[in-house]
Design brief:
Chain lengths: 112, 112
């Protein structure tokens, strides 16, 4: 079945550092890929998405490129802020299926 | 403002008691979903509804029940048959089934 694997956290960074969170997936079809962010005590917010190979999703300085050849969708941000401290979830949705499959989440803490 | 609301924010359940979590959306979305989140894990799908008066079991439906009598509402009942109900419950909706899902703020259920 479909699955998503994220790099384990927690990740602790200083402000203005470069952030990368690795995400790889296994899917039988051609999935859509997502990054969601969860701030403390809150629900999930859609951060960005990509629906086909080589698409780049971007939002709030975050970027991720859909790499079919490496089955990856790594999240990057060039200069993090304290307000980026959150849990980040990679997810996929197979076009032939109805559900989102989530990774376990990566906790990111940014220190001033 | 359009969005998804969940209530209450915190809910306490006694042994043998059924409790109902509310989920309302004013986005005019056809599809709605319930997920469960346990610490350090991704989300798992409990139930989903493609359209009003229809719903289907997800991966972990045992011990839960839902109804979809109105397009904007998708309440989840955690029954006494659910032996480990302590978790964070997230409701989501999408404009159409299999489209991008948007999440509510969540309800944290605790057992007394």
């Amino acid at each position: 079945g479909d699955s998503v694997t994220q790099m384990e956290g927690p990740v602790t960074l200083s402000e203005e550092a470069f952030l990368t969170i690795n995400c790889t997936y296994t899917a039988t079809g051609y999935p859509s890929l997502f990054w969601y962010v969860q701030y403390p005590g809150e629900g999930l917010q859609l951060l960005l998405k990509a629906t086909k190979a080589d698409d780049k999703g971007s939002n709030k300085g975050f970027e991720a490129t859909y790499r079919k050849e490496t089955t990856s969708f790594h999240l990057e941000k060039g200069s993090v802020q304290v307000s980026d401290s959150a849990v980040y979830f990679c997810a996929l949705s197979d076009r032939d299926d109805y559900k989102l499959s989530f990774g376990a989440g990566t906790t990111v803490t940014v220190r001033a | 403002d359009g969005g998804i609301t969940q209530s209450p924010k915190y809910l306490f359940r006694k042994e043998g008691q059924n409790v109902t979590l509310s989920c309302e959306q004013n986005l005019n979305h056809d599809a709605m979903y319930w997920y469960r989140q346990d610490p350090g894990q991704g989300l798992r799908l409990i139930y989903y509804s493609q359209i009003v008066n229809d719903f289907q079991k997800g991966d972990i439906a045992e011990g839960y029940s839902v109804s979809r009598e109105k397009k904007e509402s998708f309440p989840l009942t955690v029954t006494s048959a659910q032996k480990n109900p302590t978790a964070f419950y997230l409701c989501a909706s999408s404009r159409r089934f299999q489209e991008t899902q948007y999440f509510g703020p969540g309800t944290r259920l605790l057992v007394l």
